[in-house]
């Protein structure tokens, strides 16, 4: 993501911009969702073949089959393709991720409200940077993740210090 593609806030400057250099097929949540999707799809398929439902039951079972297949494999494929169109930026006040398979959506997290970034190393000197708390931007498949983590840690500390109230002056007594 180049600085020209981002709508910067007044006085905001870009510290880092990049994109995923590694797009994982599998993430930790898939360890639960994919098997559950397989079980759901297998149950729906069994019901279709053995019970041979008709009418509304048939439509319901087909919907369950599609949901199960999406959980088993579709979710990973959609994520992989969407990461191919993902860009990231870190400014002096926000982390921004622009992503989407068909329509680009921009998500941002204010640095001052973030905890320290957690680095999960990935293959080929890549990594995923995440933050505690729901709804925060996660940087997946980033190259040079330790350098980006250090940059983020410094930027978060600086953003928090800008928002902290000034220390009372004890010398003016």
Describe this structure in words.
The chain contains three helices and seven strands, in the order βααββββββα. β2 (87-91) and β3 form a beta hairpin. The strands form two sheets. A four-stranded antiparallel β-sheet has the order 1-2-3-4, covered by helices on one side. The chain has a three-stranded antiparallel β-sheet with strand order 5-6-7, covered by helices on one side. It is of the alpha+beta class and 173 residues long.
Order of helices and strands: EHHEEEEEEH
Radius of gyration: 22 Å
Strand content: 15-25%
Large-scale geometry: elongated
In total, the number of strands is 7
Could you tell me the mean pLDDT? 87
State the end-to-end CA separation. Answer: 51 Å
| Helix content bin | 25-40%
Low-pLDDT sequence parts: none
Biggest sheet statistics: 4 strands, antiparallel
Keywords for this entry:
173 residues, alpha+beta, 4-stranded antiparallel beta sheet, 3-stranded antiparallel beta sheet, 3 helices, 21% strand, elongated
Give the helices and strands, then pairings.
Blueprint: E1 14-18, H1 30-51, H2 56-83, E2 87-91, E3 94-99, E4 105-110, E5 118-121, E6 126-130, E7 139-143, H3 145-163
Antiparallel strand pairs: 1-2, 2-3, 3-4, 5-6, 6-7
Would you kindly provide a brief summary of this structure?
It is built from three helices and seven strands. By secondary structure, the protein is α+β, with helices and mostly antiparallel strands. The protein is elongated, with a radius of gyration of 22 Å.
